[in-house]
Amino acid sequence: MTTQEVADQLVKWCNEGNEAKCYQELYSPDAVSWEMEADPNDAMAKCEGMQEIQKKGEWWYENFEVHSSKASEPTVADGYFTTRFDMDTTHKPSGQRSKMSELGVYKVKDGKITEERFFYQNGEQQ
Q1: Does 126 have pLDDT greater than 50?
Q2: What are the residues facing 37 on neighbouring strands?
Q3: Are 53 and 33 in contact (CB under 8 A)?
Q4: Confidence at 121, pLDDT banded by 50, 70, 90
Q5: Global pTM?
Q6: Closest C-alpha among 66, 45, 28 to residue 118
Q7: Rounded Cα distance, 59 and 52, in Å
C-alpha cells in the first residue's frame, strides 16, 4: 500500500469506530507509539511493538468513554501523513467530560505504519 492508501484507510476505519482493524491491518509488528505530552517516566509515553501499543489502547478504553471521535482527511508528504482527531470523552475515574483535539503524525515504510506520534495540549489552553 502507498502512504496515501494507508492514510485513507486509517481515517476511514477510525471514523467507523474500527480502530482495532487499523492495528491489525495497517501497523508493522514492531511499530512505536509516542505520547508527546506524557510524563517521560510514564510507561505510556513510548510504546514499542504491537503488544505494548494494544495495552495502551486497552488502558485508553478502560479510562475514557468516547462520546464522539472524528478523524480529518489526511495530509500526506512522502512517507508520512497526519490527521487531526477531534474527541468528546468522559474520564471514567473522575466523571469529567471534555473535548479535545490532537494531531497524529504517522511514518509509513513498506506499506505499514512504523511510528505514530500524538501532539495535544494537556491542562489549560494557551
Answers
A1: no
A2: none
A3: yes
A4: confident
A5: 0.89
A6: 45
A7: 11
